């Protein structure tokens, strides 16, 4: 019986090896913290697969994909870029879906904001003092678009132009505030939710900006990649959704 058991064990290992894959996933910077938690859970469930990640703003990753970057899957911070890839037949049919809904927050390096009046007062004081207001670049980052919409809602977009410092992604935007180079910035809730020590932040009311529907899509090179296919399915599972919610997102 023992040789037979050895053979069965060898066959199972061989089967796992044959179906093992490595996938490269392009991920919007705001989701970097969540990916660390999700990857650990994914590896426990799918130990035969390996995932590599590349982080940047959604616009930067989109341009890289358009020009042939070897990504198997794309986790964008919006729906526009994945939709465009789908329309251009650069994404697998019927693979696009929303994996998270992001939230925008005002973060400060000192002043505590707890109301619209407080936010307006801080913005006006920052501009008057010729200091910086940090946002992500709206041309590259969906959270930058949300920041622009928020400032437009508050009628501060034009008056704050000279004070704006634009990060190439939402991670750089947050660093402007965290390092004291900007007294205030508009960043992602996921960046500040679990910080120790805590940093002062105030959630921007949802009606001030369009919902940040973060979508994922399987790319052409990943259509037959079992690691990418498994990760796409995993992100739709309830355990993954629970992790995503814990990181400051809605679903």
TrEMBL record:
Molybdate binds at residues 58, 170. Pfam families: SBP_bac_11. One of its GO terms (molecular function) is molybdate ion binding. The keyword Signal applies. Coiled coil: none annotated. Keywords: Metal-binding, Molybdenum, Signal. GO terms for biological process: molybdate ion transport. Residues 1-20 form the signal peptide. PANTHER family: MOLYBDATE-BINDING PERIPLASMIC PROTEIN, TUNGSTATE_MOLYBDATE_CHROMATE-BINDING PROTEIN MODA. Belongs to the bacterial solute-binding protein ModA family. NCBIfam families: modA. This is Molybdate ABC transporter substrate-binding protein. It comes from Oceanicoccus sagamiensis.
């Amino acid at each position: 019986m023992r040789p037979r058991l050895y053979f069965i064990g060898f066959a199972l290992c061989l089967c796992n090896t044959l179906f093992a894959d490595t996938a490269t996933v392009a991920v919007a910077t705001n989701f970097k913290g969540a990916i660390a938690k999700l990857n650990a859970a994914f590896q426990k469930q799918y130990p035969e697969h390996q995932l590599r990640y590349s982080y940047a703003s959604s616009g930067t990753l989109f341009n890289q994909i358009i020009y042939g970057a070897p990504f198997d899957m794309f986790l964008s911070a919006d729906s526009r870029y994945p939709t465009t890839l789908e329309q251009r037949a650069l994404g697998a049919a019927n693979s696009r879906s929303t994996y998270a809904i992001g939230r925008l927050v005002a973060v400060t390096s000192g002043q505590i904001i707890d109301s619209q009046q407080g936010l307006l007062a801080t913005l006006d004081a920052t501009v008057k003092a010729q200091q910086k207001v940090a946002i992500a670049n709206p041309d590259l980052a969906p959270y930058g678009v949300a920041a622009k919409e928020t400032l437009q809602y508050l009628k501060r977009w034009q008056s704050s132009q000279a004070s704006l410092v634009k990060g190439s992604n939402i991670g750089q935007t947050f660093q402007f505030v965290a390092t004291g180079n900007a007294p205030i910035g508009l960043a992602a809730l996921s960046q500040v939710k679990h910080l120790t020590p805590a940093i002062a932040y105030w959630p921007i009311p949802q009606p001030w900006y369009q919902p940040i529907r973060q979508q994922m899509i399987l790319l052409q090179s990943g259509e037959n990649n079992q690691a990418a296919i498994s990760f796409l399915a995993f992100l739709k599972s309830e355990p993954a959704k629970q992790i995503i919610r814990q990181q400051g997102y809605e679903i």
